[in-house]
Amino acid sequence: MESFLPTVGLSLAVSLGATALAAALGIPLAAVLAMVPFPGRRAVVVAVNALLGLPPVVVGLVLYLLLSHAGPLGRLGLLFTPGAMVVAQAILATPIVAALAHRALEARWVEFGRTLQSCGASRLQALPHLLALSRRTLTTAVLAGFGRTVSEVGAVLIVGGNIAGYTRVMTTTIVLETSKGNLELALALGCVLIGISVTVSATVLALGEGKR
Amino acid sequence: MRAILAALAMLCWVGAAQAESIVLASTTSVENSGLLARILPVFTAQTGIDVKVVAQGTGQALATAARGDADLVLVHDPEAEAGFIAAGHGILRREIAWNDFLLVGPKSDPAGIGGSKDAVAALKAVAAARAPFVSRGDNSGTDALEKRLWKLAGIDPAGQDWYRDIGGGMGAALNVAAGLDAVTLTDRGTWLAFANRRNLVELVRGDARLLNRYDVIQINPEKHPSVKVEPARRLAEWLAGPVGQAAIGAYVVAGEQLFHPDADAPHP
């Protein structure tokens, strides 16, 4: 198992990268949906929540067709690279982060929005306060996004190709070892993956608690 | 956050820093059996060309290449390969290795086919005994051969309650067969490297129709301009050449040779 550590590293890099991307897209989207009234806002909220159940294999397949050399984005040369895996997982995680963050921000905005605005704060000026007030729920939202990405296998298998030492991550290794009949090894890798997931979540939560 | 971005940047950089790299879409058996992991580093050391293996079934590997997403294919379904070349996607097919398929099944052998050398008669016996049979059902090279053998037997097993179409790879099929005590058709490479056999044993081998031939096919650059023609040609030639052939022949798992170089193939 000499290729074991790089696989763990790639799993972390891809899922953390995708989670960061999802947070960077999902939290601003949630803030806009919570704070700015516009026609059709309810429909967008419903759509974001509906995308919580986005099937990974379908995302992988559509992204594959887009990134394929025969597809419109083939020139990017992203297919079968870690970059494609990050994009695929970010697509899956963004609705999760956005939907959960929206719940928190909406509630806080109803609670404190008028007060903040009566102090003369614009929406943009109120945003940092709102984010700070919702910090703990936002942390949970981002962790839920991370949970989705680190455990995902369908999309990364299709767009990454499970190339040894390049796009092979923990989940695709577990699928591969299972198919080789190495069930004990697959199970051991599964335990490592769960351990990593727990460690990351616990670390983030501990940091959050420490800041209170 | 910064650490993550740095890690991502490094990933991209590592990808870009490779002097040259090609994508090889291959059948699963040559990857899952460990053959490619053993021989490709030799090629990379000799040429500096990095080979990224995307292991899929033969059907999917050819489909990947037909979209221009692979630089070379390594597959094992002569009929599908001929179609791929006829459609203008492939040029220059080279035989690089062979071994054989076998029917494996439970030691108890409910269809009484153990020791037979006639794969078609064995399938007839399986159908007559209504013994559980696991089919790949995934359009792979092995799946295509299985369907041809059923046709030769004059039996259409689809929909029978003893016939389980699992729609999965060779390893998945073997896992299911081991769980159900079912008969299945497997390539020798995957079988020898497979670690979860439980009750499964070799039942039928030695039928000329069970010859398993592995070919590499270069991709037609006129149809797929993005293909890296030169490094792909070098890999194809290396695999078919003396160094690659020797490396293929030298690959042994548990004392058994998994793949034979093409040079000593029993051509019908």
In short:
The complex is a heterodimer of chains A (212) and B (268). Chain A has helices spanning 4-35, 41-50, 56-67, 82-118, 123-133, 135-150, 154-160, 170-179, 183-210.
Keywords:
heterodimer, A: 212 residues, mainly alpha, MetI-like fold, 9 helices, 77% helix, B: 268 residues, alpha/beta, D-Maltodextrin-Binding Protein, domain 2, 2 domains, 10-stranded mixed β-sheet, two-stranded antiparallel ribbon, 11 helices, 12 strands, globular
3D architecture notes:
Chain B: Keywords: Signal. Chain B: It comes from Limobrevibacterium gyesilva. Chain B: This is Substrate-binding domain-containing protein. Chain B: Residues 16-240 form the PBP domain. Chain B: Residues 1-19 form the signal peptide. The complex is a heterodimer of chains A (212) and B (268). With 212 residues, chain A is mainly alpha-helical. Chain A has one domain: MetI-like (MetI-like fold, Orthogonal Bundle). Helices cover 77% and strands 0% of the residues of chain A. Chain A has 9 helices and no strands. Chain A has helices at residues 4-35, 41-50, 56-67, 82-118, 123-133, 135-150, 154-160, 170-179, 183-210. The radius of gyration of chain A is 19 Å and the shape is globular. Chain B has helices at residues 2-17, 28-32, 35-47, 58-66, 78-86, 119-129, 141-153, 170-180, 188-193, 229-240, 242-249, and strands spanning 20-26, 49-55, 72-75, 90-106, 133-135, 163-165, 183-187, 200-204, 211-219, 252-253, 256-257, 260-261. Chain B has 268 residues and is α/β, with parallel strands linked by helices. In chain B, helix 6 crosses helix 7 and helix 10 (229-240) packs across helix 11 (242-249). In chain B, the strands form 2 sheets. In chain B, strands 1, 2, 3, 4, 5, 6, 7, 8, 9 and 12 form a 10-stranded mixed beta sheet that branches. Chain B has a two-stranded antiparallel ribbon with strand order 10-11. Chain A binds chain B through residues 9-10, 12-13, 16-17, 20, 68-71, 74, 79-83, 86, 161-164, 166-167, 176, 178-183, and chain B through 1, 4-5, 7-8, 11-12, 15, 23, 28, 32, 37, 52-55, 67-69, 168-172, 174-175, 178, 193-197, 224, 226.
